[in-house]
Amino acid sequence: MKKQEIELLSPAGSYEGFEAAIGAGADAVYVGGPDFGARAYAQNFTQEELIRAIRTAHIHGRKLYLTVNTLLKNREIKEKLFDSLKPLYEAGLDAVIVQDLGVFQFIRRNFPKMHIHASTQMAVTGPEGMKFLEEQGAARVVAARELSLEELAAMHRKSSIEIEAFVHGALCYSFSGQCLMSSILGGRSGNRGRCAQPCRLPYQVRKGEDRRFQKKEELCPLSLKDICTLDILPEIIDAGVISLKIEGRMKQPGYTAGVTGMYRKYLDILSRDREGYRVTEEDRRYILDIFNRGGSCTGYYKQHNGPSMMAFSNEKKTGGVSTELKKCREKITGSLILYPESPAILQISCRDKQVVVSDGEVQFAKEHPMSEERIRKQMEKLGNTEFEWEELDIQMDGNIFVPVKLLNELRRNALAELEEELCVPMYRKAENKPKFSQSFDASGQNKEIPPMFVSCETMKQAETAWSHEEVRGLYLPYSVMEQAIGREIQNQKELYLALPYITREQAPEHFFETAGEWIEKGMKGFLVRNLESYGMLRALGLERYTVLDATMYTWNNEAVDFWEKQKILKNTVPLELKEAEMRHRNNQHSELIVYGYIPLMQSAQCVRRNLSSCDMQEGSMVLKDRYEKEFTAVCVCHPWKTGTTGKKERCYNIIYNSLPYGLLKEAKQVAALGMQSLRISLTMENAEETEKILDEFLGVYYHNRIPAERNFTKGHFKRGAE
To answer: pLDDT tens digit string along 263-280?
Structure first.
């Protein structure tokens, strides 16, 4: 295994952090610019610093990646994205890390030679989603942090594109990109790089069936330990991971240098002596002393979840480690030729590049000839450049005089030309104006109240919903759909099979075979909530039956257009857009949720298991925050909802908001948005609550009934996300 085969990728929140990463041995560095990065509160880079960092990285044979991993609004794509990326693209930026598929499409169209890395914010959890992104032109996938070594290996076997995975740093409690907690509770969206980290706060906890909360002082049930994988690096690499990513753009340069240096050390050891690879206790202590939260863990690589991964506190610990920040300098060799009545000539080589410059004229010395020692001393003054002499050969006549100014200019010009030679192979040319996808005129859209659909979790909810003639169709889990098809409800309503929020590994045996039979009997399609589910449908030739849920983000018209090119049935408007933003969005083939408990988090962790015990019975826990608001964490023990699956499934939790989202009084504003359809999303409601909700919303939307006073949150419909 050669060093170059495996990339050590380090974070930098500032230019000093970038230099610290390069100096400590990073092969590549990922940074955020002034716009669109998922760490809006890091110092980040100015445009000038980004171009400087691109040049510096290439001088040292390293790479620079830019985070463009937030969800963008139409105006941002229209007015900012092209101008922001064009100078970086032309300077040779190595790759962009992207979450938004609209941004993905825009970059592919306007900057065709740019490598695109699919961000961990895309929540890629399996081989089919990865293969889909490969087909769209992704060069790399940053895997979801929750994946096991076996899952990564399966992805590597089925797709040829690179896999990047986190090996050190903070772990999010939610699947990245699937957390709306900070956004809904405080308006600071994690999908916009502004997460306020509500997962690190204390909560009281009780089982869903209990009435009393456990009184544990300052218990942080959603706060995970940091990840440290030094001990299992060989296994991660064996699973097919090509880029080892350190988290921490919000950290100081000393952290970056210390952690990067330690991983560099062990990657180099691994390249020399795989059989003898082991981590010393001294180095384990050192890396924990740099920074930790209640110790560390090896993440999800070898376990699905559990209390051993939890910090249960928000205490950040350091051991007073002092890390030296090293300046990286590239070794150069040179030859200086100085003979009277001839130009001064300097040839410099670095790696496979060579430059030759000449300037002025060397003179005969009238009185005091310059010594080789004096000339060498002057030429070795490389100051704060990126270079250091490995060898400098000086060929000269013994009776010469050369002005010091001439030597300085010769050195500066040669180094400038060498820098250019090292960087120029990466230069590219972009068009002068951006190209956008076909735009749609929202003013020409339908302004009538569109038809209503209902998503259900239980049979009782479904029976109540399909008894209402105003309901056009239903989204149902497998076990409920089975009964609905048995009763031939598809002849009365449009039926769609709801797939898991998180899809990992294969579907249960005969799942899609049966679904295909239901399609033949009249089922209309599938409610798709993640890329892996969509990829599975695509592999089976069923992708044209797709309805995208709100978790498949279509914030902007580029994203809408991306999915329309895949010929899906319709998309669902993301829950973080406000009304004014929806008015500027193409809604012709979109569905708007008008009621439902918003999923704040989807997590591979389980609150019940971590604080109590696991009974595989799909129960719930309730979290109470400092403002006395209560959030239900539902245990999804059997994601495929077949009613017959065993303990092998990759379970997850969904944490729902304390209040339901409801646009009961906003029927006229909703009608003006020109949606294709609306949705009532039922989750935890019993039959009585279901009937009341349906009666109120259908009465207001279709029968001009005056809306009742209800304690609903409007989510982002009015305020929008930062």
So the answer is: 999 999 999 999 889 999
